[in-house]
Design brief:
The chain has 185 residues and is mainly α. It is 77% helix and 0% strand.
């Protein structure tokens, strides 16, 4: 499961980079394809981490704290950070909706919020990877892992899983095409 979470982190980072790159290359307004790509990036950042990735991590953090209470300093704020990231991702989506009108001040605000959200998310993931995941790998037992796996959400990543693109499916179509073409080029 740790390997899956690290893969998720890598993929979240790819989406953050694409979002920032798409927002930084605009000339006063976003064209419709770039706007839709940014929308899919933000939608992905709102949905997958909050619905699947963070609940898995929270279960592991709780199990770690039950087993090793003295690691509270390293783990204690991570659940709150998940809540804060959830709130910030929704604010980012709201700002995108406002920016759709094309006013440069709302696009500038969206760009700033995206930058702040990205920095927060990257810092959060770095802390998990460097400080907390090694503790989890060292402290949790096979029975702990069995309990986590039995209860954790099992949904696949809607953009990066190996599921083929379905005709007529509009969910993350631009992101899937973008990242698929990145793999074969």
């Amino acid at each position: 499961m740790i390997r899956d979470l690290r893969t998720d982190h890598h993929n979240i980072l790819r989406v953050l980079r694409l979002m920032k790159r798409s927002l930084s290359n605009f000339d006063g307004k976003l064209d419709s394809e770039k706007f839709e790509r940014v929308r899919e990036c933000i939608k992905y950042l709102c949905e997958y981490p909050d619905r699947v990735h963070h609940p898995r991590e929270d279960m592991m953090f709780e199990m770690l704290l039950n087993r090793e209470p003295k690691v509270e300093d390293q783990v204690g704020n991570l659940h709150q950070e998940h809540i804060d990231l959830f709130i910030r991702s929704r604010q980012l989506l709201d700002s995108l909706e406002s920016a759709e009108s094309g006013k440069s001040d709302t696009i500038d605000a969206l760009h700033q919020q995206a930058h702040e959200y990205s920095n927060m998310q990257i810092s959060h993931m770095r802390h998990e990877e460097l400080a907390v995941f090694p503790l989890i790998e060292h402290k949790l037992t096979l029975n702990d892992w069995k309990a986590i796996i039995a209860q954790a959400p099992s949904d696949k990543d809607p953009v990066f899983s190996e599921k083929p693109l379905k005709k007529g499916s509009s969910g993350y179509l631009l992101l899937k095409k973008y990242f698929y073409s990145e793999r074969i080029s």
